[in-house]
Amino acid sequence: MKAEILAVGTELLLGDIVNTNAQYISKQLAQMGIDVYYQTVVGDNAQRLEKTIFNAFDRAELIITSGGLGPTEDDLTKETGAKYFGKKLVLDQKAMDMLESFFSRINRKMTENNAKQAYVPEGALVMYNKNGTAPGIIMEENGKTLINLPGPPKELIPMFEEYVKPYLAKKQENIFHSRVLRVAKIGESEAEDMVKDIISAQTNPTIATYVKKFEVIFRITAKAKNENEANKIIEPMVQEIYKRFGNNIYAEGETTIQKVTCKKLMDKNLTVAVAESCTGGMLASAFTDIAGISKIFMEGDVTYSNDAKIRRLGVKEETLQKHGAVSSETAAEMAQGIAEAAGTDIGISTTGIAGPDGGTAEKPVGTVFIGLYFKGKVKTKEIHLVGNREKIRQRTVDTTFDWLRREIDKNE
Amino acid sequence: MKAEILAVGTELLLGDIVNTNAQYISKQLAQMGIDVYYQTVVGDNAQRLEKTIFNAFDRAELIITSGGLGPTEDDLTKETGAKYFGKKLVLDQKAMDMLESFFSRINRKMTENNAKQAYVPEGALVMYNKNGTAPGIIMEENGKTLINLPGPPKELIPMFEEYVKPYLAKKQENIFHSRVLRVAKIGESEAEDMVKDIISAQTNPTIATYVKKFEVIFRITAKAKNENEANKIIEPMVQEIYKRFGNNIYAEGETTIQKVTCKKLMDKNLTVAVAESCTGGMLASAFTDIAGISKIFMEGDVTYSNDAKIRRLGVKEETLQKHGAVSSETAAEMAQGIAEAAGTDIGISTTGIAGPDGGTAEKPVGTVFIGLYFKGKVKTKEIHLVGNREKIRQRTVDTTFDWLRREIDKNE
Question: Does domain B2-171 have CATH number 3.40.980.10?
Fold first, then answer.
C-alpha cells in the first residue's frame, strides 16, 4: 500500500510550528510496512487543498491528513474529503453529545461554529476525540482510504493509536514488530563494528543502529503475521546481541539511564547524596526529576568554590593545593565527604573542566573526575569528553548514572 | 513572489527525522514577504524528484530544496535541477579545492564519489559550504529560481544567511524587519488584552504575540525599503509597549531570563549561593550553565531532607515543625542560611510541592515558596503553578530569575 501524508495549516507554511505530525505518522506507517512516498503541507485554502487531495489520490491508495478540522470557516479538510468521495455531511449525534458535554465541562457556551464539528461525511467511520473537540474521520471506497486527524499532537497521537493503527493493521497481511536494546558507553563505530556481520547478513529480522546522546540503540524488527510470530523471529538475534554486549546493555524499550539507575536505587533502598562541581546541579536535578526520589535522595551540594569544598565536604586544603580541584584525589574526598555528612549509603562527586575556558595542557577542557563512595569504599574514574559546555556536563551526568548502575549490580 | 519548499530525503519519509529545515526556510521567507504555498517531502528517487520539481515550477517562481546534495548515487537534487534548466554539470575548481582541503584536514582520502560534489550546473551561482562538503546552488532563468541547499541544518542555516537571504532580498522591493520584546510574568490573555487596541489597529508595523514557557513575546514587524526605514516605523509602537509593560519587559531579541539575570549579577559582581528543595538542583544548574559564572556563583545546596535543611542551612527545627518544610518561614531561613554559610551577597531558596504526590488541601501541588536574601534583608514570595512535575520545577526556576532581576534593579 502506498500512502501520502498531508498536513493542513497556514501556521506550518509560515514556519510558526514544525511538522512533527508528519514525522510521527511516517514512523508509524513505516513500522506497519506501509510506504510513504510524499509528505505535503498546504495552507487553509479550499482550492489548493482540493487539488492536493485529488492529486495525491492519483498516486496513492491511502492519504492521512492532519489539521483543518476546527470550527472556523477556514477549516475545510473534512468538507474537501467529502467532496472527493461525493458524500454530504450529516449530524453525528454521539459527536454532538460529546461536544455539548465538553463545553458544559469548561463552562462555556457552544457556538454554532462549534456545532459544525459534529457533522461528518455520510457513511464515514467517526473517530471520537477524547482530548479535544474535533472528531476524526475515516472514509474508504473503491480502494481509496482517506483518514482525517486533528492537528494538535496531543489529540492526533491518541486517536492514531486507538483507531488508525488497528484499522490499518487489518489491511496489512504482515505486521512489523520491534525490540529495542539500549547500549551504554560504547561508541557508534565500535558498536557497529561489533555487529557488522549481523548487519550484512540481515534479512528478517533486520537490525538498525541509532546513536542518541551517550548511548547506542539497536532496533531489531521482524516482519510476521502477528506480534507473537515476530517475537519468535526476533529472539535469536536479541540473544546474540546480549552475548556480545553483556551488561553494556542497560535496558530495553523506551527509557533512560537516569530512570533505570534511580529505579535500582529505590528498589534496593540505597540512599544517595551528591557533591557536584562541573555538573553544577545537573546531577542532583536529574535525580530529583524522578517522582518519589525523596525516599532515597537526601542531599546535593554544588561546591563551586574551593572554600565550599573544604567547608561542606571536608576536602583537605592540602589535597586541593597538591592535586588541584579537578583531580582524582579531590573527587574521592568529595564523594566520601558528602556521604558522611548526609549519612547515606552512596556518595557521588563530579569535578572537571566543562569549558569553554579553564583547560590546561595537562587537564584540557573535557577532563572530568567522578568519585563514588559505596558503603565504605571510594573509587574514582577519569573521563575525557568532547563537545561544548552543555554536552560535557550532560555526558558527565549520563556516565555517572551508568557507572553507578554497574556498581550497584556488582555490590548487591 | 510565490515559493515552494522541497525537502529531499528518504529518512524524512521514514519518520527518522523531523523536517525542521522546512520550518526554518518558511519562517525566513515569511519575514521577507515571500509567500509559501506548499512544502513537500520526497524521497531519494529520481523519477519522483523530477516530477515534483517540474510540478512545483508550474505553480511557483521560486523553489528552495534541502538535501540530496551528498556524494552517493542516491543524491540527485543538483542533477535534477540541471535537467530542468537544460544545463550540464561542470567542475567548479574552488569547490574542488575546498573539498580537497577538507579531506586533508580530517586525514582521509577523497574518493571519486566525493569529487562529484564539486560539479555544478553550468552558469549556476555556487554557494561554498564552510560547514560541510556539499556546495549549494542557485540557478535562475526565465523568471524561475531554484535554490539547492544541503540537508544538515548546521550547513543549511549558515548558507541561507550568507547567500540566500541577500540574493532574495535584492528581488524584493520591500523587506520585513522585526524587533522582539520579551515580557516576563504576564499571562497570555492578560498580555493580549493589554495590546488589544494595538492589535486591532495594526497595519504597518504589525504586532504578533507568542507564548513561550513563562514569558510572552511581542514581535513587531515593519515592511519597508530597508532596515533603517523599518526601524523608524517600528519605534513608536515599541515605545508604546514599553509604556504599557514597563519593567515587565526584561529584554529584547534572542535571550533568556536566566542569561539576562546572570549577566546583571556578573556585571555588578554580586555573589550568589542557592538552597533548593523542590527545584532539586535545577536552579544551580541553570546558573552553572553560564560560562564564567564561577566568578559570582559560590555554592548550591540541594537540601531534600529536613535533616539537611537543619544541618546545612541552619533552618530551625521549630520552624519546620510549626510551619512545615514548604512554607514562607522555611524559605526565608533557607535563603539567609545559605548566604551566611557561603558568605555571599545574595542567597536564594526554593521549597514547594512539585508533585505528582505530596499535595494537601492547604498546600496543593504547585505551591512554591521562594526566599531571597539580599545584602542583609530577607523576602519571600509564594507562587501557585500548574502543570506536571517538570513544568512546575522549570517555572519555579524562571520565576526566581525574574524576581532576582527585579530586585537587583531595585537595589542597585
Answer: yes
Pick from B14, B307, B311: CB nearest A26: B14
Beta strands in B328-412 (DSSP E): 346-352, 367-374, 377-384
Q: pLDDT (tens digit, 9 = 90+) per residue, B148-160?
A: 999 999 999 999 9
What's the mean pLDDT when you consider all of chain B? 93
Residue B189: its pLDDT value, please? Answer: 66
CATH number of B257-411: 3.90.950.20
Q: Which residues contact B202 (CB under 8 A, 6 or more apart)?
A: none
Q: Which of B181, B180, B243, B186 is CA-nearest to residue B399? A: B186
- In chain A, whose CA is at the least distance from the CA of B22? A15
What is the C-alpha separation between A351 and A367, in angstroms, rounded? Answer: 9
Q: Do A26 and B12 count as a contact with CB atoms less than 8 A apart? A: yes
Cβ neighbourhood burial of A279 (10 Å; 0-12, 13-18, 19+)? buried
Residue A25: partners with Cβ closer than 8 Å, 6 or more residues away: A5, A64, A66, A149, A160, B15
Judge whether residue A105 has pLDDT over 90: no
Output the pTM of the full model: 0.78
Which site among A16, A64, A279, A304 would you substitute to test the B interface, given the most B Cβ atoms closer than 10 Å to its Cβ? A304
What local confidence, expressed as pLDDT, does residue B226 receive? Answer: 87
Q: What average pLDDT does range A15-20 have in this prediction?
A: 93
Residue pointed to by grid coordinates 515543625: B321
Selected from 3.40.50.300, 1.10.10.10, 3.30.1330.10, 3.30.70.2860, the CATH number assigned to the domain covering A175-252 reads 3.30.70.2860
